[in-house]
Structure formats: structure tokens, C-alpha cells
Specification:
The chain is an all-alpha fold and 89 residues long. Helices cover 71% and strands 0% of the residues.
């Protein structure tokens, strides 16, 4: 029994096989630079700074979101008004 696969499936299966082969081989392991990865402490520091920034700027962020929402509502109202004035033939 012969399997008939179209070209797309053959290409996808070939790409998967190549990926598995490269993952299993040592070709790229020396270029991984695993020692340069962020540590848990680095991630915690970034999280802390992000939290501090949000805490300091929370009021400003909320005001800008509310302003943007009000402008969107104004724009929607203008569109509705214009649609109501379009004459129907």
C-alpha cells in the first residue's frame, strides 16, 4: 500500500524532521549562550520595577484611557449623526 501525500505535507514533514534532527544534534549548542540568560533574580527585578512604574503612573494611565474612551464615544456619536442626515432615495 502506497501513501500518496501532496507536496505541502511532504514539505511540512521534512521541516519537522529537520527540526528534530537539529534539536538532537550538537550543531547549535555552542552558540546558545545559555550563560547569558536572565536569572530568576533579573526577572524579579524587572517585575519590581514594572510594578513601581505602574504604581507611580496609575492615575496618569487611567486618565489617558478615559480620555481616549471619551474621544471614541464622541467620534461614534458624530458618525451616528452623519448617518441620520444621509438622505434615502
Amino acid at each position: 500500500m502506497e501513501l500518496k501525500l501532496d507536496k505541502t505535507i511532504k514539505i511540512l514533514l521534512g521541516a519537522i524532521a529537520l527540526g528534530l534532527f537539529l534539536n538532537a544534534s550538537d550543531v547549535f549548542k555552542d552558540k546558545a549562550y545559555a550563560s547569558d540568560c536572565a536569572t530568576k533574580k533579573d526577572v524579579m527585578d524587572i517585575n519590581k520595577h514594572s510594578t513601581e512604574y505602574l504604581a507611580k503612573n496609575h492615575k496618569w494611565i487611567v486618565e489617558n484611557i478615559e480620555y481616549a474612551q471619551s474621544k471614541i464615544i464622541e467620534h461614534q456619536m458624530l458618525i451616528i449623526q452623519r448617518l441620520n442626515f444621509i438622505p434615502i432615495n
